Amino acid sequence: MAVAIEVSDISKQFRLYNEKHTSLKERVIHGGKMPFTPFWALRDVNVDIYQGETFGILGRNGCGKSTLLKCVAGILKPTTGEIKVRGSLAAMLELGAGFQPDLSGRDNIFLNGSLLGLSRADIAKRFDDIVAFAELEEFIDNQVKFYSSGMYVRLGFAVAVNVEPDVLLVDEVLAVGDAAFQRKCLDHVKKFQREGRTIVVVSHGADTIRQNCARAMVMNHGKVITVDEPGEAIRVYLADLLGVGTLEGSESGGIQGNVLAIGTVMADHGGSGARSHMYPGESLTITADLDSLAAVPNGMATIAIHDDQNELVFASDPDDQACAIDVPAGGGIVKFFFPDVPLLDGTYSVSVGVRSATETAIYDWKDQVTKFEVANPGRATGRVRLPLEVRFQLRSTGTTGEVPAVGAEFAPLALPGWEGSPA
Amino acid sequence: MSLDIEKPASSDPDPNPEPEQSSSIGGSTRFVPGQSHDRITIVNGKVQLGQRLKDLWINRDLLMLLVRTELKVKYKGSALGYAWSMLNPALVLSIYYVVFKIIARNHQPNFAIWLFAGLLVWNLFNGSSLGATSVVVGKAGIVKKVAFPRELLALSVVGLNMVLFAIQVVVLILAMVLFGITPAWQFVAILPLGLVALLVFTGALSIFLSAVNVYLRDTQHLTEVLLMAWFWGTSIVYAYGSIFLSGHQKAHPVLKWLQYVYLLNPITPIVLTFQRAIYGVTKYSYTPPGSKVPIWYNVLPTWSVAGYSAMLVAVLVVSLGLFLLALVVFGRLEGNFAEEL
Fold first, then answer.
1. Which chain A positions have a beta carbon within 8 Å of B61's beta carbon?
2. Please, what's the b/e burial string for A189-212 (b: 16 or more CB within 10 A of its CB; e: otherwise)?
3. Which domain, by its residues, includes A273?
4. Cβ–Cβ gap B29/A79 under 8 Å
5. Which of A117, A194, B98, B315 is the most buried (most CB within 10 A)?
6. Into how many domains does chain B fold?
7. What is the spatial distance between Cα A305 and Cα A343, in angstroms, rounded to a whole number?
């Protein structure tokens, strides 16, 4: 497969000045010296992006992903290294960049199209398409400064996609306009994919990448962490970059901690040993070590799971008799077993506690004491993988057969295990 | 692992095309075979002069559009429109006329036409250089977000001033018809050469200044002051002949040498050519009151058309060199525009 974008050993250095002198006068006064700290926004980036592929770049703010995109677009020049781009290229870094507020929509289409590299004749040919796409037929001769922000952005997007480049660079701008317009934009992206155009999407939204990309690259501190299929890349992104393993803030909230104390808490899942992360639908076991000075009868083990935004995902039922435990003097091990965890991507933290059944005493409570992560090799998005089956049947003519009871035609759920399914 | 590109059904006779080597990659993908799907753009830290020149040529439509945009934006909402663009030159012209003709009692006939000829050149040069200095900083929004040859921004200012130049030429022609002044036609024929030399030189300086101003923001103010000195160092208001062809230089051999230094100013030969063609004569006579003997004053060199042309060609050649140099400097500085703005 031909390479559309070949990035070879790209490094980009920015200079962080302690004090910046932007005039000749200041330069002369300070003897021409400007002390600076070199900052490498990109460091030895190598990646080949193939023709016809939709490629995602993931990373936190300041990881260098936008700088890389600007280098590919030719807006910034790399300090060292070389980028080869095959075919025409359009970059959508900001919609409507270069619009002149004093000019009409019509004039701006020509101006913006020219900036993106189209000739006058080309723009004239596509003019009607652009106007129709932006849904601005009535307003096209009005000055752009009177446009609403939605109209402004729609016009920008319409021009950019109608340039029909071989390579399209997109910087998190897909979410524009109302729902109908968003669907249209997405349709257009799909059309680009079908036509074999190359698309590079920069985002820190894992869902955008999962839904649209064939491969994704994860960046951090200007370096490439990995280039892989989206599921794996997102896992690496979430795991390495959002700080799994750093267990800060685990505090003991024990009120009567001297009677019973929770020791080590560990998470094991169906894929333990083979990989650090689990897949949706696998089992999960949380093991907590308990030390107790005296016997604690009528204890109640509680567990809570929070997601990486600290939203509560699950907390055990305080009245669930299944959670009742009798701890003898000397302690023991308590295991929480989830046979089927339907969670999708993310890093989840586990809080564990033991209290008395009568709720009069909390013996110990360890807040967010361990974490586990789920990587979704499939393309479903969201928080939870709801069990789902789909059946198709022809409309009943009403003359034959009994009407089946609701849900009767669905066999008992038999979900495929995720083991071995990812490539 | 990545998207498979479907091959067009049966249109490709070779079952195993090797797109990497062949130049027909466009044929193996599904877009309409057309313009430039195989064109390879290289981005690196180096300045590729040839590529820059090519890009300027490819984007000439954009240049026209930028000029038109500037014109529209500038004169939008003013009832008199382009007439306003004449206000400033007209004012300058009348001030010099009043000061030199009426107050300082200059005897030169048709002094207004003389002034106009020189100011025509100067306005184009001055307006472009000043405007271009701040253009990249002023258009930071586009420069930071869109990839295009940014030299075009500087050149669009030159283009804008070229339009104003054209309007002034029309006014000048009307004035000449009105006053019944005949130009020196054989010199009018070399004016296009002079204009081209002027545009290339102005373009070079504009490109250079627009890039430098991004890094040294007071370039703008510095340019204003230097242009003022440059104006008086060029024989626009006064006559070239009044210094170098008045007999003084025979008495002062230093002036003879100074003449060559003076001609090193690339604007001077262009201004002289415009004055020679439009003003039409190289000397005038004046008879002081009470005297019967007319005194002759030389105002312009008496070189032939070939002589003036040679000067212009020299300016053009140097300007072309400066233009390439300006592109290289611009290319160097351009790499960090998005960061500096």
1. 114, 119-120
2. beebbeebbbbbbbbbebebbbeb
3. 250-423
4. no
5. B315
6. 1
7. 11
Identify whether the C-beta of residue A65 lies closer than 8 Å to the C-beta of residue A219. Answer: yes
- How confident is the model over A168-206, as pLDDT tens digits? 888 875 556 677 777 777 788 888 888 888 999 888 777
- Cα–Cα distance between A372 and A259 in angstroms, integer? 29
Question: Is beta strand B283-286 parallel, antiparallel or unpaired with respect to B295-298?
Answer: antiparallel
Counting one residue from chain A and one from chain B, the pairs whose CB atoms sit within 8 A come to: 153
- Residue where one domain finishes, among candidates A164, A183, A215: A164
Bridge partners of A348?
A: A372
Q: How many CA atoms lie within 13 A of B266 on its CB side?
A: 22
Pair A68, A203 in one domain: yes
Pairing of β A54-58 and β A215-220:
parallel
Query: Residue A326's Cα: distance from chain center in Å?
Result: 43
Contacts of A1 in chain B (CB under 8 A): 2, 5, 19
Return the top range by mean pLDDT from A207-216, A253-262, A393-402: A207-216
Query: Quick check: A374 and A381 in contact, CB under 8 A?
Result: no
**Residue A248 — very low, low, confident or very high, per pLDDT cuts 50/70/90?**
very low
B254 CB-near residues (< 8 Å, 6+ apart): none
Residue A133 distance to chain B (closest CA, Å): 21
Tokens matching residue B300: 């312009």
pTM (predicted TM-score): 0.73
Instruction: Based on the fold, state whether residues A123 and A232 are members of the same structural domain.
Output: no
- For B192, counting Cβ atoms within 10 Å of its Cβ (0-12 exposed, 13-18 middle, 19+ buried), the class is exposed
3-state class (DSSP) for residue B189: coil
Query: Which residue segment(s) compose the domain that B230 sits in?
Result: 59-340
**What does the block give as tokens for B304?**
């032939």
A29 exposure class (CB count in 10 Å sphere: 0-12, 13-18, 19+): exposed
Q: Which residues on neighbouring strands pair with residue A267, listed in sequence order?
A: A286
